[in-house]
C-alpha cells in the first residue's frame, strides 16, 4: 500500500506537455449547461473552464481521524469529483453561473467562504476528512476508493440542501446503453453541474463537446493549501490554468453520476419537465421519475443536519426547512 501511495504522491501532471489545442471549428461546446461557439469564443470557453473549482489529490494534510492517511493520492479521486460537483452548485447558488474567476484578482467573500469549506482540514465541512469519515456509514473504510453512488450518498448527507432551500439532484446510472441520453442531458439541460464517474484511475469531472468530454482530472497530486494569516486562500492551485483534457464519450466508464442544481422549486419542476420530454420518452430509460413514493420503498426520511461545528457549516441547512421544498411531495428520482 505504501508503495502505491508513494507512486501517486510523486505524480504531478503537466498538462501543457501533451494536450492538443481545441480545434478551429464551428462546433458548439457546452460547459455545465452554458454554450460556447468554439471558433469565435475559444478564450471565453477556456476562461469558463478555469473558473471552475478544481479539486485534486493533496498530500501533507493532517491525518484523517488523527491516525489515518495524510494524502488521498490513489484513493480519493471520486471524493474530489464529488467536491467539484458540490462546489459548482454552491458557486451557482451564491455567485451565479456567469460568475468568472481571474488569476490574482480579489474575489468576493462568498467565493472565499465556499473555497474554505473544501480545504483539507477536519474542521472544514466539505473536506476530504469529513467526506471520508461520512463514507464509513456507507460501508467504506477511510482510504478506500468510493464509487459514484457512494459519493452521491455522502454528498446527500453533508449538503443536499443549503440555507436557501436550493436543491442538488444526483442521478447514478450505468451508461453502457445511454450515451446518447447523457449527451442530451449535457446539452439541453441548463441546470447541469457536473458529471463524475469511473474506476481508478478514470474518475473525472466533465462537460460535453460533440462526441468528446472536456474534463478536469483529479489525479494530479498537489501539496495541501491552508488559509493565510490574513484569512485569504492562495487559490491558484484550485483552478486549472492549462488547456483541459478531452476524451471520447464512448470511453466514459460505465458507472457515472450526473449532477444538476435547482435554485428554486420552479427550476426543479422545469428539470423534471425537460427530462420527461427529452430523455424519458424512449423505451430504454436510464432512470424514472414518479409522482408518489413507491409503496415498496422504505419511508422517506430527510437527511439530518450533521452535528458538527465546522468552518463553512453555515452552508448546511436545517431539516426543518425541507418542508418548503420537499422532493417526496413532487417527484421521486429512481436510479437504475
Topology of this structure?
Layout: H1 2-9, E1 28-31, E2 34-37, H2 42-51, E3 57-59, H3 77-94, H4 109-117, H5 128-135, H6 148-159, E4 167-174, H7 179-188, E5 192-197, E6 204-209, E7 212-216, E8 221-223, E9 245-248, E10 255-262, H8 265-279, E11 287-290, H9 327-330, E12 332-335
Helix pairs in contact: 3-4, 3-6, 7-8
Describe the 3D structure:
There is one protein chain. The chain is of the alpha+beta class and 336 residues long. The chain is 28% helix and 18% strand. It has helices at 2-9, 42-51, 77-94, 109-117, 128-135, 148-159, 179-188, 265-279, 327-330; strands spanning 28-31, 34-37, 57-59, 167-174, 192-197, 204-209, 212-216, 221-223, 245-248, 255-262, 287-290, 332-335. The strands form 3 sheets. Strands 1, 2, 4, 5, 6, 7, 9 and 10 form an 8-stranded antiparallel sheet that branches. A hairpin with a 2-residue loop joins strand 6 (204-209) and strand 7. Helix 3 packs across helix 6. The model is unreliable at 1-19, 198-202 and 316-336 (pLDDT under 50).
Give the gist of this structure:
The protein is an alpha+beta fold.
List keywords for this structure.
12 strands, 336 residues, single chain, eight-stranded antiparallel β-sheet, two-stranded parallel sheet, 9 helices, disordered C terminus, globular, disordered N terminus, alpha+beta
Rg is 19 Å
User: What's the shape?
Assistant: globular
| pLDDT averaged over residues | 75
Series of secondary-structure elements, N-terminal to C-terminal: HEEHEHHHHEHEEEEEEHEHE
Structural class: alpha+beta
Instruction: Tell how many strands the DSSP assignment holds.
Output: 12
Poorly predicted runs of 5 or more residues? 1-19, 198-202, 316-336
Biggest sheet details: 8 strands, antiparallel
Percent of residues in β-strands: 15-25%
Helix content: 25-40%
| N-to-C span | 33 Å
Number of DSSP helical runs: 9
Assembly state: single chain
Amino acid at each position: 500500500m505504501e508503495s502505491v501511495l508513494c507512486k501517486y504522491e510523486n505524480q504531478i501532471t503537466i498538462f501543457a506537455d501533451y494536450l492538443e489545442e481545441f480545434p478551429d471549428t464551428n462546433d458548439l461546446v457546452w460547459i455545465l449547461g452554458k454554450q460556447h461557439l468554439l471558433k469565435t469564443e475559444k478564450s471565453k470557453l477556456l476562461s469558463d473552464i478555469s473558473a471552475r473549482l478544481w479539486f485534486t489529490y493533496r498530500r501533507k494534510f493532517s491525518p484523517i481521524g488523527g491516525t489515518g492517511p495524510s494524502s488521498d493520492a490513489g484513493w480519493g479521486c471520486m471524493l474530489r469529483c464529488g467536491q467539484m460537483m458540490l462546489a459548482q452548485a454552491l458557486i451557482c447558488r451564491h455567485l451565479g453561473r456567469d460568475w468568472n474567476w481571474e488569476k490574482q484578482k480579489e474575489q468576493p467573500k462568498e467565493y472565499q467562504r465556499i473555497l474554505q469549506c473544501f480545504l483539507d482540514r477536519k474542521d472544514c465541512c466539505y473536506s476530504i476528512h469529513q467526506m471520508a469519515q461520512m463514507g464509513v456509514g456507507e460501508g467504506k473504510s477511510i482510504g478506500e476508493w468510493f464509487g459514484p453512488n457512494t459519493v452521491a450518498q455522502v454528498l446527500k448527507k453533508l449538503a443536499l440542501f443549503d440555507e436557501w432551500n436550493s436543491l442538488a439532484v444526483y442521478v447514478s446510472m450505468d451508461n453502457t446503453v445511454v450515451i446518447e441520453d447523457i449527451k442530451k442531458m449535457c446539452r439541453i439541460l441548463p441546470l447541469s453541474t457536473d458529471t463524475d464517474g469511473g474506476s481508478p484511475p478514470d474518475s473525472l469531472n466533465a462537460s460535453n463537446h460533440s462526441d468528446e468530454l472536456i474534463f478536469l482530472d483529479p489525479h494530479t497530486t498537489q501539496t495541501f493549501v491552508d488559509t493565510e494569516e490574513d484569512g485569504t486562500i492562495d487559490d491558484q492551485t484550485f483552478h486549472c490554468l492549462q488547456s483541459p483534457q478531452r476524451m471520447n464519450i464512448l470511453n466514459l466508464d460505465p458507472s457515472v453520476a450526473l449532477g444538476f442544481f435547482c435554485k428554486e422549486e420552479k427550476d426543479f419542476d422545469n428539470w423534471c419537465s425537460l427530462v420527461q420530454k427529452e430523455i424519458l420518452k424512449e423505451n430504454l430509460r436510464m432512470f424514472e421519475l414518479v409522482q408518489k413514493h413507491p409503496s415498496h420503498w422504505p419511508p422517506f426520511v430527510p437527511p439530518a443536519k450533521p452535528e458538527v461545528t465546522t468552518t463553512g457549516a453555515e452552508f448546511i441547512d436545517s431539516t426543518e426547512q425541507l418542508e418548503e421544498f420537499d422532493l417526496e411531495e413532487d417527484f421521486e428520482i429512481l436510479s437504475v
